[in-house]
Amino acid sequence: MIQKPLGIRVADVEADGDFDTHDDQAELGELLVDVSECLSAFQADLEARGVAPRTLTLVWSEFGRRPEENGSGTDHGAGGLAWVMGDRALPGVHSDYPNLSQLDDEDNLQVTIDFRRVYSSLLEQWLGTDANAVIPKSSGFGRVALVA
């Protein structure tokens, strides 16, 4: 679909598998290896087809994990993830690492960058769309440089 002149600007793909592994963290590792291999193959295919310069991939999780085990593995928490990959993605880590010794009142990692900031930045830098038209009051989230 990306290679064809269909005018598609955004596509959404949901990862197969159950990442809500709580007490089976070894399974989570296996799932993440699969995700890594699939993303690597996808990027290689984009490059082979010559469409990598006009394709950006955003990977994110809708929930994170608490850093402390709770008797059944790790529970849902605030420390999620998001990353951007592609030929035009700026390299590096674009937020502070969460501090394991400074948890919030509910023993979660403190969020170091709001996902809405990442999303707003991509709307503007990649799609050329005013983020305020998509995310109300998005100007309050600031922006982070993600795209070259």
Descriptive key words:
148 residues, two-stranded antiparallel sheet, alpha+beta
What would you say about this model in short?
The protein has 148 residues and is an alpha+beta fold.
Structural write-up:
There is one protein chain. The protein is α+β, with helices and mostly antiparallel strands. The protein has one domain (25-141). Helix content is 24%, strand content 12%. It is built from two helices and four strands, in the order αββββα. It has helices at residues 25-49, 115-125; strands at residues 57-60, 64-69, 74-77, 82-85. The protein has a two-stranded antiparallel ribbon with strand order 1-4. It has a two-stranded antiparallel ribbon with strand order 2-3. The radius of gyration is 17 Å and the shape is globular. The chain starts with 24 loop residues before the first helix and ends in a 23-residue tail after the last helix.
Question: What is the beta-strand fraction?
Answer: 5-15%
Oligomer: single chain
The average pLDDT is: 89
What composes the largest sheet? 2 strands, antiparallel
| Secondary structure: helix percent | 10-25%
Taking the alpha carbons of the first and last residues, their distance comes to 24 Å
> Which strand order does the major sheet show?
1-4
Give the tally of β-strands: 4
Q: If you compute it from the alpha carbons, what radius of gyration comes out, rounded to the nearest whole angstrom? A: 17 Å
Which parts are unreliable, with pLDDT below 50 for 5 consecutive residues or more?
none
